[in-house]
């Protein structure tokens, strides 16, 4: 909390996306490595999230800073699936008695796999994990050019009920600016194929803040998306990050000795216009980014709470967490670093998979802070009674800085909860980073992402 909130509110609201805490840039080698059996021994294991990471894509989008590789060698894909099964088998053995109540396949682009490979993936999940994909919310991420009827049939038959697809923009010029080779007919055919397969939930992702984009062109993309009646829509502000395609283009531009105009950041205007547009269309806002349609159905299944229940990540780049230990493989963005990390993953044996050697340990203070961040940035907000029940103390005493949110009308007391106001939700990408502890912030600053 080195920068006062009042100072942060004077700058653009887009500081960083707090999708997890601590961020993987705070992870470091664990010495000695932690046995997974010991790490999970004291944890509840009856309501876990199983996440599989497929780090392959047909191309690398200019804005992407995920752990992903474009156009891998075919044999690498086959070998990677075998290594994922090996890791899953060792991990579930280490868990002992367990039950998974949420499931997702992300990437990368999981639909880069062909239909046979997808069948293989769902098969080893059924063989090695206590999970019933037909009885729990289960999702997969796809890209338009990788969708076909055979793949979608395999996914639906396996129990997948949610498909998330990144469109980013329906404007050809804006898509080109994102270094994304995508055509409108490919998108329309992909959506039609997904709908024909009978998935209950379709999510579409859009981006705002693209160079040359305007409020009106952003709203036009939203209208194009609404024509397909998606159950969910995510509106993502564009971040141009180091080592991404757009980051390299931006860096190259800075090296030119020419006068350039000061960039105008219209992302907040686009967010507010997009939010109002979706609310007028009957969508409800779940978080700064997520909007749910009135016709969306409840995913059902056993309860899962991201604040208290654990996640098991399988695959290179996947993150796992217990209450006191978050762990994963190393993190990289550039192709060189991704290749090196992936090569290391492919060489691991079963003994290596039985322990965690890279991650971060969370003390009681960090656990409290994580609970606050994971709760506050959602529509339901931070349940103060639930916090007291879990930690035995008052949240506003533990994190007095939360009082500043009330002072600046970014949050309000809403019955038993502390919830963000409309202005606070718009500032979620300021509030999240502001709540990061000094220790974690220092680790993130020291991290060198290749």
Structural write-up:
Helix 4 runs parallel beside helix 5 (149-158), helix 5 packs parallel to helix 7 (184-197) and helix 8 (215-226) runs parallel beside helix 10. The protein has 2 domains: 26-292, tm_1862 like domain (pyruvate-formate lyase- activating enzyme); 364-446, Arc Repressor Mutant, subunit A. It starts with a helix and ends with a helix. The strands form 4 sheets. Strands 10-11-9-8-7-6-5-2-12 form a 9-stranded mixed β-sheet. Strands 1-15-14-13 form a 4-stranded antiparallel β-sheet. The protein has a 3-stranded antiparallel β-sheet with strand order 16-18-17. The protein is α/β, with parallel strands linked by helices. It has 19 helices and 18 strands.
Radius of gyration: 22 Å
Question: What is the H level of CATH, i.e. the homologous superfamily of the largest domain?
Answer: tm_1862 like domain
How does CATH name the architecture of the largest domain?
Answer: Alpha-Beta Horseshoe
Instruction: Give me the side-by-side strand order of the main sheet.
Output: 10-11-9-8-7-6-5-2-12
Question: Would you count the extended β strands for me?
Answer: 18
- Going by helix content, strand content and strand pairing, the class is alpha/beta
Largest sheet: 9 strands, mixed
Form type: globular
Helix content: 40-55%
Helices, strands, pairings?
Elements (H helix, E strand, L loop, with lengths): L4 H4 L19 E8 H6 L6 E7 L1 E2 L11 E2 L3 H22 L4 E8 L7 H14 L9 E5 L6 H10 L3 E7 L3 H6 L6 H14 L3 E8 L6 H12 L5 E6 L7 H10 L12 H14 L3 E2 L4 E3 L18 E4 L4 E3 L3 E4 L6 H12 L3 H4 L1 E7 L2 H13 L5 E2 H8 L3 H4 L3 H6 L3 E4 L2 E4 L1 H5 L1 H7 L3 H9 L4
Parallel strand pairs: 2-5, 2-12, 3-4, 5-6, 6-7, 7-8, 8-9
Antiparallel strand pairs: 1-15, 9-11, 10-11, 13-14, 14-15, 16-18, 17-18
Helix pairs in contact: 3-4, 4-5, 5-7, 8-10
């Amino acid at each position: 909390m080195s920068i006062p909130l009042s100072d942060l509110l004077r700058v653009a609201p887009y500081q960083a996306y707090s999708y997890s805490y601590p961020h993987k840039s705070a992870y470091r080698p664990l010495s000695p490595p932690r046995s997974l059996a010991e790490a999970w021994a004291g944890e509840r294991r009856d309501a876990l999230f199983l996440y599989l990471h497929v780090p392959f894509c047909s191309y690398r989008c200019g804005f992407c800073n995920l752990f992903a590789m474009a156009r891998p060698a075919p044999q690498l894909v086959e070998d990677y699936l075998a290594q994922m099964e090996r890791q899953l088998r060792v991990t579930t053995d280490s868990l002992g008695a367990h039950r998974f109540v949420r499931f997702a396949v992300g990437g990368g682009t999981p639909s880069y796999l062909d239909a046979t490979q997808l069948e293989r993936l769902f098969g080893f999940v059924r063989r090695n994990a206590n999970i019933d994909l037909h009885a729990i919310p289960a999702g997969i991420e796809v890209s338009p050019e990788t969708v076909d009827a055979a793949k979608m049939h395999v996914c639906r038959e396996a129990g997948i009920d949610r498909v998330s697809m990144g469109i980013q923009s329906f404007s050809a010029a804006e898509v080109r600016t994102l270094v994304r080779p995508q055509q409108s007919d490919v998108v329309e055919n992909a959506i039609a194929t997904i709908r024909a397969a009978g998935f209950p939930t379709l999510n579409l992702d859009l981006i705002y803040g693209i160079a040359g984009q305007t409020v009106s062109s952003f709203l036009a993309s939203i209208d194009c998306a609404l024509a397909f009646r998606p159950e969910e829509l995510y509106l993502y502000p564009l971040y141009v990050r180091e080592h991404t395609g757009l980051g390299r283009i931006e860096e190259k531009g800075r090296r030119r000795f020419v006068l350039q105009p000061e960039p105008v950041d219209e992302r907040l205007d686009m967010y507010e216009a997009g939010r109002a547009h979706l609310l007028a269309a009957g969508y409800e806002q779940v978080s700064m980014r997520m909007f749910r349609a009135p016709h969306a159905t409840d995913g059902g299944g056993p309860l899962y709470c991201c604040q208290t229940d654990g996640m098991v990540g399988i695959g290179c780049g996947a993150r796992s967490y217990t209450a006191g230990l978050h762990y994963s493989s190393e993190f990289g963005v550039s192709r060189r670093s991704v290749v090196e990390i992936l090569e290391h993953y492919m060489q691991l044996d079963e003994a290596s998979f039985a322990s965690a050697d890279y991650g971060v340990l969370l003390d009681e203070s960090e656990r409290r802070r994580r609970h606050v961040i994971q709760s506050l940035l959602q529509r339901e907000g931070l349940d103060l009674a639930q916090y007291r029940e879990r930690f035995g103390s008052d949240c506003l005493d533990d994190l007095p800085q939360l009082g500043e949110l009330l002072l600046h009308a970014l949050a309000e007391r809403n019955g038993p909860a502390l919830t963000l106001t409309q202005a606070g939700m718009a500032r979620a990408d300021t509030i999240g980073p502001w709540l990061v502890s000094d220790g974690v912030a220092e680790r993130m600053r020291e991290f060198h992402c290749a």
